[in-house]
């Protein structure tokens, strides 16, 4: 697996799984009806943020990550990231590779920590993955997410010092 900078030419490969994940409404706080054009603008954010893709040896896009400042101004020393793995390629270490890549990127860019603002507590695979990389749940917003089948569930704030 190779992780490289994403380009606009990658969007046609990202969009199908991006749309599937977002419209399912189980893990991200994006609007469920987010259209392709708006979604591309939300995902491909300008520098100093960064967007990458994980590809296999044939060049197939397996997943993607968006890395950015968590806040502006006096909070700009904390990084954040969002990850999406094509469900057809789950269980192959793509999410772990993207998460570790983003931690390494944030450290190299001089960020002091990483924070995830809304990790849905029912997304247990992601919570376990992030914890295995050294993130801690530092708080949970009760009923902060309206899950389509579980109802109102909490969202974790997760943090890792760099």
UniProtKB/TrEMBL annotation:
<keyword id="KW-0012">Acyltransferase</keyword>
<dbReference type="Pfam" id="PF00583">
    <property type="entry name" value="Acetyltransf_1"/>
</dbReference>
<dbReference type="InterPro" id="IPR000182">
    <property type="entry name" value="GNAT_dom"/>
</dbReference>
<protein>
    <submittedName>
        <fullName>GNAT family N-acetyltransferase</fullName>
        <ecNumber>2.3.-.-</ecNumber>
    </submittedName>
</protein>
<dbReference type="GO" id="GO:0016746">
    <property type="term" value="F:acyltransferase activity"/>
</dbReference>
<dbReference type="InterPro" id="IPR052742">
    <property type="entry name" value="Mito_N-acetyltransferase"/>
</dbReference>
<dbReference type="InterPro" id="IPR016181">
    <property type="entry name" value="Acyl_CoA_acyltransferase"/>
</dbReference>
<keyword id="KW-0808">Transferase</keyword>
<feature type="domain" description="N-acetyltransferase">
    <location>
        <begin position="1"/>
        <end position="162"/>
    </location>
</feature>
């Amino acid at each position: 697996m190779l992780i490289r900078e994403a380009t606009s030419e990658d969007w046609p490969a990202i969009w199908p799984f991006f749309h599937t994940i977002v419209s399912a409404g189980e893990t991200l706080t994006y609007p469920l009806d987010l259209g392709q054009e708006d979604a591309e603008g939300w995902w491909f954010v300008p520098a100093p943020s960064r967007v990458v893709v994980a590809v296999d040896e044939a060049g197939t896009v397996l997943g993607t990550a968006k890395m950015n400042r968590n806040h502006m101004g006096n909070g700009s020393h904390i990084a954040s990231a969002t990850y999406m793995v094509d469900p057809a390629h789950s269980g192959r270490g793509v999410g772990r590779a993207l998460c570790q890549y983003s931690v390494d990127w944030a450290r190299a860019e001089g960020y002091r920590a990483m924070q995830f603002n809304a990790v849905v507590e029912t997304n247990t695979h992601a919570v376990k993955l992030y914890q295995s990389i050294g993130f801690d749940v530092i708080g949970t917003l009760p009923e902060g997410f309206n899950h389509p089948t579980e109802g109102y569930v909490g969202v974790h704030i997760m943090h890792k010092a760099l």
